[in-house]
Every structure is written in C-alpha cells, then in structure tokens.
Amino acid sequence: MKPWVKVALVTALFAIPAMALGKVIWPPAPGGPEPSAGQFPFFIFLALFEAVTFGLGVSFLLFGFAPLRRAVGATWRAWAIYLSVGWFLVSWWPHDNLHIHNGEDLQGLLYIEYGFHVTLMIAGIVLAYSLLTMLRPGDAGTQTAGATPARVR
Q: Is the alpha carbon torsion for 50, 51, 57, 59 positive or negative?
C-alpha cells in the first residue's frame, strides 16, 4: 500500500469520529453563546478542519518518526521535532472543544491556556532550535572564523 493511502486512511479513521464526537466528549457550556446563521458554516468548517488536522497528526505520529529520523539523523533532534509537530497537529481539536466546553470559567481558561498555548510555544521554540542547529555554518547568516561569503551566481 502506498504511504499516502495509509495516511489518508488513518486520517479519515480518526477525523470522522473526532468530528462526530467533539461536542459529545466536551458538551458546550450551559448559557454559552450561540452562533448566528451566518457564523454557523464558519464554525462547521473550523470543526472539520480541526478534525482533519487531528487525523493528520495521528497519521504523522504513527508513520512520521522513521522517515524523520532518517532525514535528521540525531535521535534527540528527531524526537524533539517529531513530538513538536505531532502536538502542533493533534492539539487543535481538544483545544477548541475545551474552550467551548469551559465557557466563562476563568480557572478552566488558565488550564487551557497553559496546557495548550504554552506547550505550543515551547514546541515552536523546540522546532526553531532544532532546525537552526541543523543548518551548516553560513546558512543562518553566520560564518565560521576566516570563511568568506559565497558569491551569488
């Protein structure tokens, strides 16, 4: 089976239930705002996009480590990138649903902000560091001592 077929199947296998179960697992907070008729399609599209991204994240977590390790080489860097990208992809579905479920509870909002936003910031830092440390000297605008800049052709 071709890799893209496996990814598509796993993505659908997780995205479809995620779309159907979001409001079941995390019902909206009582008294929360209701979208207008004009807003409703945009919320449906957002929920669909989050569910598909969740499915793609699961696919990445299932199939992405081996090729990433072959490309990156260093085990610590491969794990850091793998986990960061996986979290970037899977976190949107529970994150958005928890916001709807939480309602106006400020303590719950703090848990959501720290549990998702801060961890996504850390994942961004990990990705930036990992990618920058993979560059050769000169690729990031720095040079090694005594090196001359490459000429533009």
A: negative
